[in-house]
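BUG: 3D viewer hangs when loading the predicted structure for this chain

Environment: internal workstation, default settings.
Expected: structure renders.
Actual: progress bar stalls at 90%.

Input used:
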Amino acid sequence: MSDFDFFYGSWDVINRRLAKPLTGSDEWDEFPGKSRCWGLFSGGANVDEIEFETKGWSGLTLRLFDPEREEWTIYWANSRDGRLQPPVVGRFTDGRGEFFGDDTHEGTPVRVRYIWSRITPTSARWEQAFSVDGERSWETNWVMDFTRTAG
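Structure tokens produced before the viewer hung:
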């Protein structure tokens, strides 16, 4: 249940986001962010808020641990539409977290994958990918590289 303890605190974030997912485009948009995460339920839940000042919006993640299934359920919302997105579910194995769920992107059903990797006391990486072919192939469309800040 302490899988996300590494993420508590404040972070500078470099975002790389695919400009047009699922179109074959390889044009990436890079922009900064600032994130802070805190724990709840004695480690069984956590929340982070990320601000994308250059984009004019922010996001919020809620993570809840199910001790019976030993899995995390992760929910995302952003200030642009104020809607809680469908969750992804998964766990950490050997320091790498993989989480999967179903959603849509611009009307197309997609399988969503989040990966947490490269975790150190001062850095981490998060990636989002979509699959439209039953997980035979994945298109990574958003990468966040986190660097811990003093505050």
